[in-house]
Amino acid sequence: MSFPVGRHISPWVDTLTPPELGPTGFRDDASDVLVLGAGITGITTALLLQRAGLKVTVVEARRLAGSVTTHSTVKVTYGHGTLYSKIEQKLGFDAAAAYAEANVAGFGEILALERDLNIDCMLERGHPHVIYAEQSEEVEAVEAEARVAERIGLPVTLSLDPPIRSWS
Ligand SMILES: Cc1cc2nc3c(=O)[nH]c(=O)nc-3n(C[C@H](O)[C@H](O)[C@H](O)COP(=O)(O)OP(=O)(O)OC[C@H]3O[C@@H](n4cnc5c(N)ncnc54)[C@H](O)[C@@H]3O)c2cc1C
Q1: For the whole model, what pTM was predicted?
Q2: Atom of ligand 1 at shortest range from CA of 62
Q3: Is the CB of 77 under 6 A from ligand 1?
Q4: Do 158 and 146 touch, CB atoms closer than 8 A?
Q5: Where are the domains positioned within the chain?
Q6: What is the rounded average pLDDT of the residues 46-62?
Q7: Is 68 in the pocket of ligand 1 (CB under 6 A)?
Q8: 79 lines ligand 1 (CB under 6 A)
Q9: Residues 94, 100, 104, 105: is their CA dihedral positive or negative?
């Protein structure tokens, strides 16, 4: 598969034919829940509700998984740059810990769905999420993130090898 250089492409849009959407129209006597939007959030919500025994209708205004979801790089991780230390700074440690708890639960849910539904999505396990400093001024932020993640109880390794100064 080759992709054009210099243009933002999405494998989902550029190589896949979108599944046909069903008929439009919603009968509220036929559904317990109406989910608006068939991005990853809406589809996952609908699936979990359906698995919990509810009748669900998903209404999509444009295209299935066609909006922000289209542009995801599809990494599944509970690390997000230096977000935990930013949350702690703004909202306190408990908020950062709660955010981590939700992320770890979501992470597990995605792995379980892929396994239980036997979804062929080339999910690879075991690659660590890495954040790094490109400039010496960024080292402090990386260290702060590692400290918060460690206090929360996330598995984290801080490495100053190679030392930042040898990168320039
Ligand atoms: C470049 C990029 C890379 C990313 N990489 C990652 C990554 O590696 N890992 C990761 O976990 N996340 C990543 N993300 C974030 C992730 O893609 C988004 O958080 C996620 O896709 C959001 O999904 P969503 O379903 O909430 O929204 P969307 O995908 O935007 O879906 C919302 C849907 O609702 C529909 N809609 C809106 N209003 C209505 C209405 N009134 N009626 C009916 N339908 C409606 C829209 O048409 C759309 O289809 C990335 C995002 C970007 C932009």
Answers
A1: 0.83
A2: 47
A3: no
A4: yes
A5: 1-20+28-74, 83-152
A6: 93
A7: yes
A8: no
A9: positive
